[in-house]
Amino acid sequence: MRDPYHAVKMDDPVAGAPDRVSHVLEAIHVLAPLITGRRSEFDRDRRLPDEVFAALADAGLFRLWLPEALGGPELSPFDFMRVIEAASALDGSVGWLAGNGGGMSRIGGYLDEAVVREWFADPRAFVVSSTGAVGTVGPVAGGYRLSGRWPFGSGAHHGTRFMVLASVRPEDPDSPLLCCYLGRADVTILDNWHVSGLRGTGSFDFDARDIFVPAAHVHPFLGLQPTQPGLLYRMPPSSVFAWSICGVPLGIAAGAIASFAELAGRKSRQGTRVLLCERETVQATVGRARAMLRAARGFLTDAMAELMAATDTGGQRLVEARADIRIANAHAAETAMSVTDMLAASAGAAAIFESCALERAARDAHAAAKHIAMSPNNYVTAGRLALGLDPGTARF
Q1: Residue 8 has pLDDT above 80, yes or no
Q2: If residue 132 lies in a helix (H) or strand (E), which one and from where to where?
């Protein structure tokens, strides 16, 4: 099958030096047979097989934003998205974990260098993150005592560190939130990941009870001060967090276009010998899908370019840039859902079978779009700001 990423790839004029990502993209291409061969286990076990997860780690996918000063590639946001799109085109769960793990390696720009070097000395380090709930912390000598339960711990069974949100007064929305990092032995994983899409991500709930967290393993969720000079670490953390997974639905849709092209070249509709690829309505659908996908990607890259430019300018320009990156994320997810649904409809009954890549792509795209980073509520936030109102959310 053709490389699903390059099936719709376009040259990105704002991307960084291609040499930084070429070896990672090649590693993803090499991983394709392994992923294809083990994919049935993703849904069955609701997590990636250990062998596949280790291969992703060995390819460097879980340290894409580790600072250069600490031995990481510190990819630009655009190069990062290219990598996540490529991984997601092969499989949505693989891309989701690469986006989460690679995205969380940016903690190297916020924590003390000695702490980060210790954690990432493990070549297969993977930081699980959960911001869907708030635990409780109490200050004690040298750090905090923490308890809570957190949802959507993607990659939980392979996590070496777990980042959670906590507050001294979680019931008070004005109480500052802290990012606390726990060790694998500090958490209990709960077997509740029974879902339709992105099953292989293993995004189980987990909890911790009265765990001591050293002060060096804690930083503010908002308003944190970077320990590294790169622009990536100076940008608004909530915007960067959202960007780390926004390429997933686009990559899934790109993979769906490639899968559909392969199917259309050998399948005909019942009652006719005309192949799908020879039908003008199908040709128009594929052309429209490509246009939609590239337009969504263009909006994303334009929004990120403005966010990067506005980071050090600040003021109203940065506020507007943060709002635009939010709606670009939501728009990309909606576009990916539309593309996969269009292609599945054109494929007919074949697309309802689990053996069909379009079946998996459609449910994975819909699952990804449910993430808060791509929520339709982002339109509300941007609309409120455009109308002269406050953003309406404490996490903006």
Answers
A1: no
A2: strand 127-140
> Residue 30 region, left (φ>0) first, then alpha (ψ -120 to 50), else beta?
alpha
DSSP letter (8 states) at residue 177: P
Distance CA 170, CA 173 (A): 7
- What's the pLDDT at 358? 96
Nearest to 218 by CA among 294, 123, 138: 138
**How many angstroms separate the CA atoms of 72 and 43, rounded?**
32
**Is residue 248 within 8 Å of 92, Cβ to Cβ?**
yes
pTM of the model: 0.93
Rounded to the nearest integer, the mean pLDDT of the chain is 93
Query: What structural domains does the chain harbor?
Result: 19-120 (1.10.540.10), 127-220 (2.40.110.10), 235-386 (1.20.140.10)
Report pLDDT for 19: 78
pLDDT digits (tens, 9 = 90+) for 337-393: 999 999 999 999 999 999 999 999 999 999 999 999 999 999 999 999 999 999 887
Strand partners for 172: none
- Which letter does DSSP use for residue 18 in this model? T
* Count of Cβ atoms closer than 10 Å to residue 133 Cβ: 16
Span 256-271, pLDDT tens digits: 999 999 999 998 876 6
Task: Say which range, 3-7, 88-92, 248-252, has the weakest mean pLDDT.
Answer: 3-7
SS3 for 104? helix
Quote the strand ranges of 45-90, DSSP E.
Answer: none
Tell me the percentage of the chain whose pLDDT exceeds 70. 94
Q: How far apart are the first and last CA of the chain?
A: 42
Bridge partners (DSSP) listed for residue 268? 275
Asked if 247 contacts 84 with a C-beta cutoff of 8 angstroms, the reply is yes
3-state secondary structure of 48: coil
226 within 8 A of 107, measured Cβ to Cβ = no
Model confidence pLDDT, tens digit, residues 150-191:
999 999 999 999 999 999 999 998 899 999 999 999 999 999
Positive/negative CA dihedral, 40, 42, 43, 45:
positive
- Decide: helix, strand or coil at residue 187: coil
**Looking at residue 169, what DSSP letter applies?**
S
Strand partners, 183: 161
Number of H helices, E strands in the chain: 11, 7
Rounded alpha-carbon distances, angstroms, from residue 229 to 74, 80, 222, 226, 317: 11, 18, 18, 7, 22
